[in-house]
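Q: For a teaching session next week I want to show students how multiple molecules come together into a single three-dimensional assembly. I've collected the sequence lines for a complex. Could you give me the predicted structure tokens for the whole thing so I can convert them for display?
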Amino acid sequence: MSNLSVDHLGMIYELPNGGSVEALKDVSFDLESGRILTLLGPSGCGKTTLLNIIAGFLAPTSGSINLNDAPITGPGQDRGMVFQQGALFEWLNVADNVSFGPRMNGNEGPETDAMVQDLLETVGLGDFGQKAVYELSGGMQQRVALARCLANDPELILMDEPLGALDALTREKMQSLILELWDRTQKTIVLVTHSVEEALFLGDRLFVMAPRPGRIEREYELPFAKLGLTEDPRELKNSPEFTEKREEILSLIWEMEEQIMGHEGA
Amino acid sequence: MAESAVDGGNVSGGLVDRPAGSRAVPLILGGEAVSSGNRLLGVAGVGAMLALWVVSAQLGIVDPEVLPGPRATAEDFWQLATDGFQRVTLWEHLAMSLMRMALGLGLGGVAGVVAGLAIGSSRTIRSIVQPAFGFFRLVPVLGLLPLIFVRFGPGSMRLVSLLAVTTFFIVAIAVRDHVAGRGPMPGSSADRVDLRTVRQALPATFLALRVAAAVNWNVLVAGELISFQKGLGAMIWTARTFFQYGFVLVAIFALVGVSALVDFALRRLGDWLAG
Amino acid sequence: MLFIIWLLSEALGIADPTFFPGPIETIQGGWELATDGFQRVTLAEHVFASLRRILIGFGIGVVVGVPVGLAMGLNNTLRAIFDPLIELFRPVPPLAFIPLLILWFGIGETPAVVMLFFAAFFIMVIAARAGVTGVRLSKVHAAYSLGASKQQILRNVILPNALPEIFVGMRVAIGVCWGTLVAAELVGAQTGLGAMIWTARTFFRNELVVFGIIIIGVIGVILDLIMRKAEERFIPWRGRG
Ligand SMILES: Nc1ncnc2c1ncn2[C@@H]1O[C@H](COP(=O)(O)OP(=O)(O)OP(=O)(O)O)[C@@H](O)[C@H]1O
Ligand SMILES: [Mg+2]
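A: Of course. Below is the structure for the complete assembly, covering every listed component.
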């Protein structure tokens, strides 16, 4: 049972000019296994910072963070990461990208090959194994990134604006794919997005974060991710419940933006 | 797609076919600045090098015939700065080199901007001159150096024209890419070039000028070395024929200083003009 | 088109042939050089001498410069120490060192080769270093999350990621080396294209000077094209990360 527990987490960046930025302040939450959590908030509110701390790329300046009661002290393959773009290895073909994790662990051979093929089929790229990654469209590249991350069978999948660089149509398809993978693999997922709609649709939990200092402003428990597995996404996104939540969150973020502007004006 | 200059050896300075987003500073201009926290180590490195020079000269480890020591070099510098060598002072050499460099950059730069704007904004002009550009881009400038032996035009201007040609290509290609990359402006004909366009092209122009200067120091010194009486390159070669190796070292230090100075000036000037 | 103007100017006798030779004269000179040679040395021998120097100097410069650059890219301390030194000497035209090199290594092949070595060395150090420091952090992070060790990341991420930059550096370096070599041969060599031009000039054989320049240009273009082809062949992913 994976359980992510974040306790009074704080992160202060020291700037070279002597100043400092409080990117996270007193962030606490527990995330049970199998949940999908989306993080939403204005630019600079510490979403990436939080994700990087969970991934182990950054050490927090205060507070603690545990996965299954063990403190996170560095990157590990129990936590997979999907980036917005440009994190694929363009010198490797699609299949070699996906098999990167297993190969680094000394797992090479027909078994790995079969697993890679399986994963590629899961993300809809069964025939693309031998293609160069730069020959693929942005959406396909993100599918490869998903497959590469799944190849190591992590407990927790972290995604930083994974669909941010895609066009609207591809984006919708990929949203459904993420839900499908979530359902099939029962993984815990933390996903950062700038799109309110995406955060509502994909998150069965949703944190709206606020900047300066970065913190969790409001939390939601949402039904849409589960519903999205069976219902038509378009209809779901047009349902009164969905649009009502969307308006609520949008006005919340608007308020924040106005405060930021006010600050800057002063 | 932000393309920037890389090549040093070629006429273009390689302002084309750079992958996007890879580096803001062209290869020929060297690396990015070291972060301030590490300055001390850098100073230590340079200091160690100087110390090695001083100590090895003092202890007589290195034969002064092989490498003049700091004291001898300083004395040579003093002589060059005051009396000069062969009746020409360091400052005259320096001024001559700087003048050639400035003329080359200035003439080539202005012509380059005009050509770049024309090529970048007009399809017709582009289709006519593109092939020639494509070829000359690949020719190593220094290979054209012997042209200064062939009489075309007044002798003292030959080297300058070579510098100007180098500059011209580097700047023209940079400006062309800038104009072409900007795309047609909505609501205005693509063929229109106004003052604002020129202004917007300034950063690209000055980056190109810095690349051109870096390439041109090579050309300048080589050119002066083989065929002139004045200029740092000429000074190096005269010093050699008289076995005055201290003067060679002074010239090398002068080149370090003056090339850094020109680069700095171009950068500042570019920033200032671009607002 | 330039060629046609050139040809016309000769045919119509516009340009004074003692100053600027026409194409027919140049081709005749080139033919003589290629078959009988000039001062008993043929074109092929000159070309070979030049190419040999550049390949040795450039080759050693790459072999030494790349590891140094990689080390500087990977290690902050090394970078902090050597960056200023490199930055200090990098802008100095390699040719400025030639008197000292001749003093140290004597007249012969060595000074030119050492000079080319330095010319290539600085460029390769900067290129390899930039290749390493230019790696996207997300790639390194992704590799860590996939269970790669530091060593594995170095081998499987940072090195391949630096290759395009290294190849670009090689292309720049070979261009700089070629031009510098020709200039060096002008002043201090018995063979090589530069030396040939120098001798031709002292005998007022302008058509050989022009012919030499053309050959130098053509070889320069060929070297560049070879490097470009090598890039396409070995790093097809360049610039498409
Ligand atoms: N390495 C760093 N050094 C200094 N400050 C940083 C660093 N990384 C982030 N910050 C600062 O910390 C704050 C939070 O940054 P972070 O990248 O986590 O925000 P974000 O929510 O991911 O923003 P975005 O939506 O733009 O991606 C910002 O003010 C940012 O400027
Ligand atoms: Mg972010």
